[in-house]
Amino acid sequence: MRITSVDVELIQVPARVPEFRWREGLPGSDGPTTGAWLVIRTDGGVTGFGFCHSGIILNDIVERRLRKELVGADPLAREFLWNRLWELDRIEYFPVYINGVVDVALWDIAGKAAGMPVHQLLGSFRDAIPAYASTVTFGGISEYLDVADQCLELGFRAIKLHAWGDVRADARLSRALREHVGDDIPLMYDGSAGFDLADAIYLGDALADAGYLWYEEPMRESSVTAYKRLGERVAVPLLVGEVAAGAHMNTADFIATGAATAVRTGWTLRGGITGSMRIAHLADSYLLRAEVHAGSLPNTHLCMAISNTTYYEALIYSNPVRRPDEVDANGLVHAIDRPGIGWEFDAELAARLGIHD
Length: 357
Known about the structure:
This protein is α/β, with parallel strands linked by helices.
């Protein structure tokens, strides 16, 4: 089987309603955007899809760099093509998500060619996983507590905060939420890279006192040494390696510092499915967890295939809370039983994003 064409289909992605933010000064939703489907066709009649919210950028890179590299290649040679894109990255410095879009489309082809869901092709570990409610930034402590109550009533088994980016206010919120839900509900905190080392230590101490399960991205991940020093000073477990470039290579440096209790993986920022599995296996070698970042169909497959992950991340962006469609009334996300990634079989997704074959 050979790749016969590589095309980008630009589409208009509507704004998420209501709009939201991650913390003070950092936008979350951007309004309507130009997204794109990467469409890779083969002479075997199998077509693979990958989706990207930055459609104009993807289209430019495909036109200038990727089409001539991919057309004529064996789509099942994913390791070769994954490494080839890393070679090209030396010249182009691709946005971190580009490798992931291509890799997901190739795994979509592989699953369809095998007649198997991608998680089975990877080697399934489970057929369902609990979801945690990952909040956006809400207005005040009382609203957060109300949102938490709604999430628990909807079946969620854990809650993660995206708060305001003010260490003292966030510390008060973190303690208030723990007191409100009790000791048995796992809680997490995501700083969205809002702090320097001193403030990260202050908040980390508060999270440790409140028994939080993990402390995620309090600082920009440009300095592995800063995270090493943070890990030496706080008792709360650190979840690291979400957005730093370099996939498993960068993750290895975080692990080598001894600071990581768990690492991030996931198709969008860690090199697609291929890169994500490399990270998961690397972490497993050190008895660390590899937690999948964000929801989506590709990440659902990863959650089912990675033994050392514990939750699916489900975004909660509105009040009243709306439970995402993939999460059932018991707070579980179930394995996809369709060949490939399954884009075409999700009628709501297909209609919203305009996918067709």
